Amino acid sequence: MTRIETSLSPLAGRLLVAMPSVTERAFRKSVALICAHSESGAMGLLINRPATNMTLRRLLSEGGMPPPQVAIGVPIHAGGPADIERRFILHSEDYDLPAHTLKVCDGIWLTPHEDVLIDIGRGRGPAQAFIAMGYCGWGPGQLEEEIAGGAWLTSPATPDMVFDLPSEDRWPNSMERMGIAPSSLSILSGHA
Questions:
Q1: Kind of pairing, strands 108-111 and 102-105?
Q2: Lowest-pLDDT range, 98-102, 144-148, 149-153, 159-163?
Q3: In the chain, how many domains are there?
Q4: pTM of the model
Q5: Close Cβ partners of 79 (under 8 Å, ≥ 6 residues apart)
Q6: What is the DSSP letter of 163?
Q7: How far apart, in whole angstroms, are the C-alpha atoms of residue 157 and residue 164?
Q8: Gyration radius from the chain CA atoms
Q9: Is 8 a domain residue?
Q10: InterPro entries, per this entry (predicted)?
Q11: Most Cβ neighbours (<10 Å): which of 15, 22, 26, 185?
Q12: Which domain holds residue 62?
């Protein structure tokens, strides 16, 4: 397989879990998977925000792609507030689109190309898939500042968190996996 292998930074392949002090609507109680991180900034996808009124059939139709040939129950998510017309597909490692597939972490790959959507609709896509519209972006040093300021907790990403767990359970489950009871956190966390 021809995949894009990158030297993973400490934040690529990690989940960002919003602290209760994050009240901005787009990020309140959010969980984001960091897909790429370098000195130039970071890119990630929210993994717990289902896109309302969006289906694979509609997504393919609006993108001018052929309609699905198989019944597909892959949910569509709002990946972030930036560039919501772009589609990003997180998937299991059994799928490869040469020169477009990027390893995020063990068991989770990213292909930001419409061919994977067409393959999913034809029943030839990856065994596990997560489709996001839009992404989250941070400029140089911005994400590190937000983490240091107490806006985010980080934890390793796992395929089950991205592909198997229901969207609404991802934020509380992320907290619990870190040994934190969400009810014990104050909305004023990180503020003196």
A1: antiparallel
A2: 98-102
A3: 1
A4: 0.86
A5: 45, 46, 49, 88, 132, 133, 134, 135, 136
A6: I
A7: 12
A8: 17
A9: no
A10: AlgH-like
A11: 15
A12: 14-184
